[in-house]
Amino acid sequence: MPMSMALAAAPVLPSSLTLPRVITVRERFDVAVPVPPLVVRHTAGVKQKAVVVMGATGTGKSRLAVDLALRFGGEVINSDKMQVYAGLDVVTNKVTDDECAGVPHHLIGVAHPDDEFTAADFRREAARAAAGAAERGQVPIIAGGSNSYVEELVDGDRSAFSERYECCFLWVDVQLPVLHSFVARRVDQMCRRGLVEEVAAAFDPRRTDYSRGIWRAIGVPELDAYLRSRGADDDDELARMLAAAVGEIKSNTFRLACRQRGKIQRLARMWRVRRVDATEVFQKRGHAADEAWQRLVAAPCIDAVRSFLYEDQECSSIAAGKAPLFASGNATSGNISVFASTAGTAVAAAAV
């Protein structure tokens, strides 16, 4: 069945899996700064604008995407190739309703767990979601760790997306030694949230192929040997097998993070990318970590996106002898590295 038809049909899930929750749009965003009114421009021949948030697994891409969506009026389009599947919410680390904070999220839990959702499928569905968001006067914000999906969207299909949208690329980076420690802690946290139980509930002893669909997700194949041995009487051996599986999940997750970081470094040589160094955030805990996030990640990225979205309005206001709508941020503030944007018309325009 073509993927477009599969997406239109309600998936028939294994009995051990449940349909994904519906992420609803709340009437009001629960943030201190109210979302400004939006003015939608439709100017023929002028590109609309989109934001792309990249980063290795665990670096805070979803958090930043929601921060930006709440500030500027946006909708998040998931670009994580495992989160696109229904089920295994803990394993795939899908955003919760609370984490969504009322921001509309697209392409989460839309594909059947056994299907193959390709990069071409993502390009088509993400472009459709972005067009819908733009039509509603919202900024499309693409966020996720599957950089092959993002590359296919931006550069695939003869760059149809790039012909329509000017993109602001943001890269949330964390130094590898710090990320390694954080990944290990996050896997432990996922286990406490029920990762092993979730995989056990979906386990089918007849399944031997972990190369398709959601079953490729890190955390599923690693637990296969342990789950097949659960009937054994040797509790010590089972505990050893479980510890080994969790250790393998941590190692494979960190290897994935290294590959993702390398891919982003390659893409940064092709695209104009802003890099924010979030390392200090992950070296802190609690309130100190939240303060570091606002100072080192959220604030410089908000400045960057503000300038990106509203630069034409600033130029027009200055040319007319009027004060700009906002105080411009420094283009190199915080830990941001390379970026330059060309002129274009914002999908959403308002004072912030």
From TrEMBL:
Catalysed reaction, written as an equation: dimethylallyl diphosphate + ADP = N(6)-(dimethylallyl)adenosine 5'-diphosphate + diphosphate; dimethylallyl diphosphate + ATP = N(6)-(dimethylallyl)adenosine 5'-triphosphate + diphosphate
Report which superkingdom the organism of origin falls in.
Eukaryota
Q: What is its EC number?
A: 2.5.1.112
What does the UniProt entry say about where the protein is found? Plastid, Chloroplast
Looking at the keywords, is Metal-binding present? Answer: no
Q: Which UniProt keywords apply?
A: ATP-binding, Chloroplast, Cytokinin biosynthesis, Nucleotide-binding, Plastid, Transferase, Transit peptide
- Keyword Plastid assigned to the entry: answer is yes
Q: Which family does it belong to?
A: Belongs to the IPP transferase family.
* Name of the protein described by the UniProt record: adenylate dimethylallyltransferase (ADP/ATP-dependent)
Q: Which organism is it from?
A: Oryza meyeriana var. granulata
Lineage in the entry? Eukaryota, Viridiplantae, Streptophyta, Embryophyta, Tracheophyta
